[in-house]
Specification:
By secondary structure, chain A is an alpha+beta fold. Chain A has nine helices and 19 strands. The chains are: A alpha+beta, B alpha+beta.
């Protein structure tokens, strides 16, 4: 089903607050979202790495997969995603992908096992904003009778990221300290029900806070009252995730790339690799056996010139071997950083390459990801 | 010495037959944090409306067009070493290049400060 082109952009419940803070609001995935606040992307990026950044990510899709009990729901979900869903402990969260029949990536997502009394058969799922309608239809189509997809209603999502995020959140809800990486807890913050997971998209320790729309503004204001917290826009979110080596759907992966090529094999457990049984498994298993023809790698350009998405990657002999899929200036690295796909022969860290930027060949090297060490609290 | 402005958001300050060229405060604000500047070689002959320099912000690359025909006689190395000057002092210390003007008539019809302010809606 195609959307009418004239549909006006949607606004999150925090729109008026972004505008009042002086944000530059741009259309993104069908929403008007803050790309930056007046201090700018560099300052916001550095603040998040040093203190705590607050992001409005309410445009993302939150939904529930609902079945009679955990095993039934997890088993159903395992036919759709390659992750080990049955192995999730209560309150645990896992990263995975939605795959097409041919094994190409349709989106990436987070899957959490609920542990609320009476909701044991529920999984909480977060997908990308631009893909949510598509994803919901794709998942619903793959579910058996008795298991259904329930879109989240009137739910906002905030992210609090950075080395001071724990102290900030614990000041409001001491239980935040006890949440382990890739787990959640149901916390009360000033009487509001907040579903808090220890995860994020910056490479820093931090949390994602799912809250009802009616409470989103109060929670946002409460967090911003802490002097360690500043609002951060989508611009810095992009430079932070790039330095952290994290994929952006539609750029670093799409329906032409498989999870093996995208270097996401770590997200597929041994059992699932050998047993398969998920949509797209044939390609994934073939690529595990034979090796993929190309791989997503980190690329460090020499000098200061950023190589953007689309820049052709050449080997030292001048033959095109791939393209940059994300590239820009990494404020923490204090230089250009990029990711892209190269043929398998050129994927080893240390391999010299050239990136073609405005007809100039820029020397670069394949490097390990992330560019900035992750500081997750494990 | 008068300062003129173009619709491509450059300023031009003319002294004798040499024009000093930079980008406007408005352009610098729109770009955001500048992290890289690529300037033409001294001696290069540039043509009005063609790319002469490149500025890169965290988000994107943008071309800076030559506002007039002429020859590059000097470039501002300071903004190459310290690109953030383009944000902090765009219409002062962060000039981009000096062009020996080939055709002064190309200056006619450019905006003055008041005209440019109206153009950008301020």
């Amino acid at each position: 089903m195609s959307e009418p082109l004239h549909r006006p952009p949607r606004r999150t419940p925090l729109y008026d607050r972004h505008a009042a803070l002086g944000a530059r609001l741009v259309p993104f995935a069908g929403y008007e979202m803050p790309v930056q606040y007046p201090t700018g992307i560099l300052t916001e990026h550095n603040w998040t790495r040093q203190h705590a950044g607050l992001f409005d990510v309410s445009h993302m899709g939150q939904c529930f997969i609902v079945g009679p009990d955990f095993e039934t729901t997890a088993h159903a979900m395992e036919s759709i995603v390659p992750a080990d869903v049955l192995g999730l402990a209560p309150q645990q969260q896992r990263y995975s992908q939605l795959l097409a029949e041919g094994g190409g990536i349709l989106d990436d997502l987070m899957i959490t096992r609920a542990a609320y009394a009476g909701y044991e058969g529920w999984l909480y799922v977060v997908v990308n904003a631009a893909r949510k309608e598509h994803d919901y239809a794709h998942i619903a189509k793959g579910l058996p009778d008795g298991v259904t997809l329930k879109p989240g209603e009137a739910m906002s999502l905030l992210a609090l990221q950075g080395p001071e995020a724990e102290a900030v959140l614990a000041a409001l809800a001491p239980g935040a300290r006890d949440i382990r990486f890739m787990h959640y807890a149901a916390l009360k913050i000033s009487g509001m029900d907040v579903h808090v997971s220890r995860s994020g998209y910056t490479g820093e320790d931090g949390f994602e806070l799912s809250v009802f729309d009616k409470d989103a503004g109060t929670l946002w204001d409460l967090l911003l009252q802490d002097p360690r917290v500043k609002p951060i826009g989508l611009g810095a979110r992009d430079s932070l995730r790039l330095e952290a080596g994290l994929c952006l759907y539609g750029h670093d992966m799409d329906e032409t790339t498989s999870p093996v090529e995208a270097n996401l094999l770590w997200s597929i457990s041994k059992r699932r690799r050998s047993d398969g049984g998920f949509t797209g498994a044939t390609r994934v298993q073939n690529e595990i056996m034979g090796g993929p023809s190309r791989l997503r790698v980190g690329i460090k350009p020499e000098g200061k010139l950023p190589a953007r998405e689309g820049s052709v990657i050449q080997n030292v002999a001048g033959r095109a071997i791939g393209k940059v899929t994300s590239g820009g200036f990494g404020p923490t690295v204090n230089g250009p950083v990029a990711m892209g796909y190269v043929d398998k022969a050129h994927a080893a860290p240390g391999t010299p390459l050239y990136l073609i930027v405005r007809d100039k060949a820029i020397a670069a090297t394949v490097c390990k990801l992330p560019f900035v060490p992750n500081r997750f609290k494990r | 010495m008068s300062v003129k402005y173009t619709e491509e958001h450059e300023w031009i300050s003319v002294a004798g037959d040499v024009a000093t060229v930079g980008i406007t405060v408005h352009a610098a604000e729109q770009l955001g944090d500048v992290v890289f500047v690529d300037l033409p070689a001294v001696g290069k002959v540039v043509e009005k409306g063609k790319e002469a320099a490149v500025v890169e912000s965290v988000k994107a690359a943008s071309e800076v067009y030559a506002p007039i025909d002429g020859e590059i006689v000097d470039v501002n190395k300071a903004i190459v070493d310290e690109p953030s000057l383009v944000n902090s002092d765009p219409e002062g210390g962060a000039w981009f290049m000096k062009i020996r003007i080939a055709n002064k008539s190309q200056l006619d019809g450019m905006m003055d400060a008041a005209g440019y302010a109206t153009f950008v809606g301020k």
